[in-house]
Fold this protein.
Amino acid sequence: MGGFILKILLIDDHKILSTGLKNSLEGLDPNKKIYIIDDYIDSEEIISLGKDSKYDILLIDINLKKLTDLDGLELAEKILENRPDKKIIILTGYDNLYFKLKSKEIGIKAFVKKDIDMEKLDDILNEVYNDDYKDEFTKREFVLTEREKEIVVLYSKGYTRDELANKLFISKRTLGNHLHAIYEKLDVNNVQEMITKATKLGYIKDNLF
């Protein structure tokens, strides 16, 4: 990259981790400069900073509870609504299908686990900047439709079958058909297994954060 400095904005509410990441990446490559947001900040201000053309890449965690009212995917989506050209990488401890699919859907360039080797992360940053990064394969058999996701979330909130059918304005028979499809996709046998598996995959965010 010659004398060019790649400017990266890291948005993460874990101060020790974000400082360590900054030191490691800048130590690996003097052509990278890491800027950190790790203290509470107004949602509109953090969105505005994310849109700033000063930064070449945004590195965003998903769980930002101590930092802002938005989670990382919501923040990324709002930034990309007005700046679809922004290069965003999700850096997270959550390795589940829903978050990966949502990331791809809204235009995030890469989805990376926090336990990644620093040299590998450095390579991904370079590849994303140069538009060379190849997205990883996701298991399509676990992909739920919007209606199926809605049913899973409502069951996790304690709705009974009768209550859920009434809320969705569908018959219990139709609800049963949806449940059968969900059970097959998630490879589960009952509602409790469905909720547990859906939580692991990231469909039920309330049980994760």
